[in-house]
Design a protein that fits this description.
The chain has 385 residues and is α/β, with parallel strands linked by helices. It has twelve helices and 15 strands.
Amino acid sequence: MVHSISLWSLVLVTMSSLMAAVQSKEVVCYYGTWATYWKGNGKFTVDDINPLLCTQLNYAFFDINPNGTIRIMDEYLGLPSGLNAIVKFNNLKQKNPALKTIASIGGWNAGTANFKAVASDSQRRATFARNAVAFLQKYRFNGMDIDWEYPGAVDKANFVLFLQELAKAFAPYNYLLTVAVGAPEWRANESYDIPAISRIVNNINLMTYDMDGNYGVTRHHAAIFQGPGSIDDTDFKRQLNVDAVIRYWLSKGASAKKLTLGVPFYGHTFKLTNPGVDGVGAPTKGVGTPGPYTQQGGVLGYNEICVSSFPRKQFDSVQGAAFASGNGEWVSYDSVESIKQKCNLIAKYGLGGGMVWSIEQDDFKGICGGPKFTLLSTLNGCVNK
């Protein structure tokens, strides 16, 4: 009997190890903390996060100061004197001990000047690295994500030095270091020393979205594949799809297992010139109407799209993207089907997993007929298959 129990224990340990090996791909979840202030069903606080659906959870954003210090952009939201979001965020690891929490630095609104100032000066780089370690220790994060949007050609070498300084400072503490990067070839070629960055960081989060361009016609912003000649009629346009992005980064020396594929939980919207012409490539006359939560023209969260009056919903099987139209407006977005296809691409190229921008734009309440966190649950369920 003792022998049988020991043997069964060995089997369980072996099975657990095998399962852990299979469940190895990352699901990197950015949380746009400003959604705390959204109205109605869009309001999304730390308490709404399901920490079991992510492997890395990124708090967006903190800012970098030109002297190498770190700034909490919304102290009322983040600190115990207010809503205490930072503590609550890191306490999510009590519900999922395997979860890694990441402090994301930068973002679009942070601009580029402060990053340039720090990255270009050796003393400031060292100062930032020391402050980064102290910040992670103080607030109990497991790592830091650098979201510099975007380094210019003159910043390429300095960005590598900046990341090297951070990696060196993080090593004794096993802190993770990740980067969010502009994905298409034209951006990546200007901004990044791809093989050098790949050697330094733990993950490269590819921002494979916002790739439609302003061409006066409806286009997918996160298409998986190249469009037909009538849509993608130049070499530049043929860069603007997920498959082309992956192939480019791999061809330039990125480690496949470090690349996480960005999946948008929002769509790009347009006003149609002629409501009766509403396919891909239809003429447009500006961006779509702001939604009740995101309140930004030209953008709708998935939780806004799925409750909006778009009576005509379609799937573009050529490019691997969903789109919908109605009331003279048009939106391209990621659906359950397109996310499953992106999981297939992650498997095909042996990528490190998926990344989502951003969880508060998912149908986190399940009010559109699917499960709560419809899109995130789909990615979590298919990324390791």
